[in-house]
Amino acid sequence: MRVLVTGATGYVGRAVVRELRVHGHEPVSSRQRLSEPFELADVDAVIHLAAIARVRESFLDPLPYYETNVGGTLNLLKALKGQRFLLASTGTVYRPSDAVLTEESVREPSSPYAASKAAAEDLVAWAAQSGQIGATTLRLFNVAGGGDTDTSRVITRAVACAAGTVPGMDVYGDGGAVRDFVHVRDVAAAFVVALEACSVGTSAVYNVGATAASVRDVLDAVLEVTGRAVDVTWKPANAGEIRSLRADSSRLRALGWEPRSSALAEIVRDQWLASAPAPGPGPSR
Q1: Where is the NAD-dependent epimerase/dehydratase domain (predicted)?
Q2: Whole-model pTM?
């Protein structure tokens, strides 16, 4: 298939473009602004990754999140004529729970960013219900590894601390908060699996997560992989801190997806190898 990828030069986008090529598809990078009308007559599918995704920033200035994440999705949907459409969403659309989250779990976005993604999900679902397109939403949990540069993410920040490229990291609470991590290569594989399963007139939602781990687990893994402890400043927990956000990805696995690179130590090691200063990683095994 000929597949338009928005956000193709981003962290996840680069991995998705590579995976599409491996599976014989032709990725097309979009250079259009999301605020502009799209022409999509020469593509078979769209993978929509482009978005503004800074959670804390979204509380300070929420309007651009709706303008880009919802308005951009709307502009793409208006241009569709029988194509497949895949939306990258987020696991933070769910109401936090100690239980593992399925695709049927209650949505209760906890930030303007997550709320904008939930609104985009609704647009996509209604467009699919019309029967004019095929639509799939992938709710990504904590994507990591593969040379990520966003040090607001916990694994990337911890590895950067070990590498000495950032001075340290703040941990709020006792470090026991649990998140679900998934390697960016496995995320890319999920998009290709979902693309090939999608067909016009159908709609589906899939969780994309692989390995549940606490912040302390991440710090321990960084020490094990690099031989360097992370300089942590412990701070009181934020009010309303989400203690657990774990994904049930069995629906996606039923399509044949299997996370192959998402063990915590492998994610950390891959991030370290991509960002460590000379002479390289810590003690060998």
Answers
A1: 3-209
A2: 0.94
